[in-house]
Amino acid sequence: MRLNKPALYAAATTATLALVLTACGGSAAGGSGGTWDKNATVNIGSLYEPQNLDNTAGGGQGVTEALNGNVYEGLFRLTDDGKVDKLLAKDYTTSADGLTYTFTLRSGVKFHSGRELTSADVKYSLQKVLADDSQSARKSNLEVVKDIATPDAHTVKVTLSQRSISFVYNLSYVWIINSQAKNLKTSEDGTGPYTLGKWTRGSALSLNRFAGYWGEAAANKQVVFHYFKDATALNNALLTNAVDVVTSEQSPDALDQFKSNQSYRVNDGNSTTKLLLAFNDKAKPFTDVKVRQAVSAAIDDKKLLESVWGGYGKLIGSMVPPTDPWYEDLTKVNAHDVTKARKLLAEAGYAKGFSFTLDTPNYDPHPTAATFIKAQLAKVGITVRINTITPDEWYTKVYKNHDFTATLQEHVNDRDLVWYGNPDFYWGYDNKQVTKWVTEAEEATTTARQTELLKKVNRQTAEDAASDWLYLYPQIVVASTKLSGYPLNGLNSQFYAYDIKKKD
Predict the structure, then answer these.
(1) Which burial class, exposed, middle or buried, applies to 101 when counting CB atoms under 10 A from its CB (0-12, 13-18, 19+)?
(2) Can the peptide bond before residue 365 be classed as cis, meaning omega within 30 degrees of 0?
(3) How far apart are CA 115 and CA 224, in angstroms?
(4) Burial of 366 (0-12, 13-18, 19+ CB in 10 A)
(5) 28: pLDDT confidence band, cut at 50, 70 and 90?
(6) Which of 60, 69, 117, 169 is the most exposed place for a label (fewest CB within 10 A)?
(7) CA distance 327 to 93
(8) What is the spatial order of strands in the sheet that 222-227 belongs to?
(9) How do beta strands 475-480 and 264-269 pair?
(10) Gap between the Cα atoms of 479 and 277, Å rounded
(11) Which residues contact residue 37 at a Cβ distance below 8 angstroms, ignoring those fewer than 6 apart?
């Protein structure tokens, strides 16, 4: 899991306009027709600057957006429509018991430093994710790795402690890094279609086409990620042609100026980012399922979504977005019902309400959502004290130390329902049956069985109000009509830039 935020990492450390809305999925068709400039510089506008350049060291959403797939590659790649393709792995086999995976690496792949990729680099990269100090999004998922062998330079043999149906999918999160590389927080040595150009903190990060790339060359010569502190400044940059595309529009009020201008295209894609009111299920009063259900019922999610996003985004009754295979519409579970909320509070022994502190990240939309939640809960006698903290404070206080009663946070990744099967995760949800289902789902021999079990997890966590899933973010990419080939969906914050074409 990774949390969507300017400074958090990924997994909880890490944490969103053209007269017609383009359909979801695939790449944008804007800019089709005419000739395109193979030596163009594509300027990308973003609110998410990396904290550092290492995705195992708290680099945040920004490092995934800029470097994943562009500078660094994995054995596998998660496509914009959620499929898993082979990338640096030319092929692989699985043993009959499902415990041993043998990967054959592509030949002729070179790191940006010029060194050839070997199996030792894959082993190093996996060990880096699994290291004690790793903040990788998929560290706990990959802890099933028991042994990594490198019988020759192009073969990697991974043995698991137990069957893991998601193993290959989880490998799409692992960047393959030169085992001899140093200073990875400020430099890089990947195998991707771009090399790191210049990173000016607080301003921009440039990527240059890598002449020695093993695959198809990037469609543009250079991309520059320009970083802005707020959505207004970002939109102004797009209007003045300082940037060509905005990776994730965060100001729905600004959309009309782009939708009415034929120089721009507004793309409404699929997001996997959920805004959560996460309870500490091990801290009173949220140890009581009725209290969690009452709080969830007291908050009008539809009104919150409308106030923040206008007509964009979706209500979501669980941790599972519609793009996950085990999705089920559970918005009617713990739906907004003030009368029911008061009844549940009384049954839990809080007829007169209670008070709690809500730890709230200091960047949008959290302060707005916190204020809304405070007003909603006051109607049922619950007093909310808002404690605004920085992303780094959130990581230490909430994620690492579990020192909180309730918090707001964005969870970016798809397929992250499984975190409710881990009682040691920061929100402390502990349902033995759910943990058993999650374990069985991961050890399933077919995707049908995995889906069946995770649907049970989905419904049980919703009925238990393990968290309050406030809404699913929209994924609005706004671009000049001169561009084509940019990603439309917000899967895990990645933004592949190598297919972007820019008209002459």
Answers:
(1) buried
(2) yes
(3) 26
(4) buried
(5) low
(6) 169
(7) 29
(8) 194-200, 204-209, 222-227, 41-46, 245-246, 475-480, 264-269
(9) antiparallel
(10) 32
(11) 220, 502, 503, 504
User: Cα–Cα distances in Å, from 303 out to 307, 360, 373?
Assistant: 6, 20, 11
Mean pLDDT of the chain: 91
> Residue 222's closest CA among 41, 69, 43?
41
CA 411, CA 403: separation in Å to the nearest integer? 19
Do β-strands 406-411 and 355-361 pair in parallel, antiparallel, or remain unpaired?
A: parallel
Span 382-430, pLDDT tens digits: 999 999 999 889 989 999 999 999 999 999 888 999 999 999 999 999 9
| pLDDT above 70 for 8 | no
SS3 148: strand
* CB-neighbour burial class of residue 193 (10 A; exposed 0-12, middle 13-18, buried 19+): buried
In the three-class reduction of DSSP (H, G, I as helix; E, B as strand; rest coil), residue 227 is classed as strand
8 Å CB contact between 392 and 412: no
Distance of alpha carbon 283 from alpha carbon 377, whole angstroms? 18
Sorted by sequence, the CB contacts under 8 Å of residue 423 that are 6+ apart come out as: 429, 430, 435
Task: Give the DSSP H/E element, type plus range, for residue 102.
Answer: strand 100-105
SS3 for 376?
helix
CA–CA dist 68, 499 (Å, integer):
14
Instruction: Compute the Cα dihedral for 460, 464, 466, 467 and give only its sign.
Output: positive
In Å, what is the CA distance from 118 to each residue of 121, 122, 163, 174?
A: 6, 7, 26, 15
The span from the CA of 249 to the CA of 447, in Å, is: 34
Residue 474 DSSP one-character state: P
* pLDDT, position 429: 98
Name the one residue in this structure whose structure tokens are 């207004």.
Answer: 232
Structure tokens at 469: 């899933």
Q: Which of 163, 165, 141 is nearest to 413 (CA)?
A: 141
Structure tokens at 202: 């607080």
Enter the DSSP assignment of 116: B
Place of tokens 């830039």: 497
Element (H, E) at 151: strand 145-152
Taking the C-alpha atoms of residue 378 and residue 133, their distance in angstroms, rounded to an integer, is 41
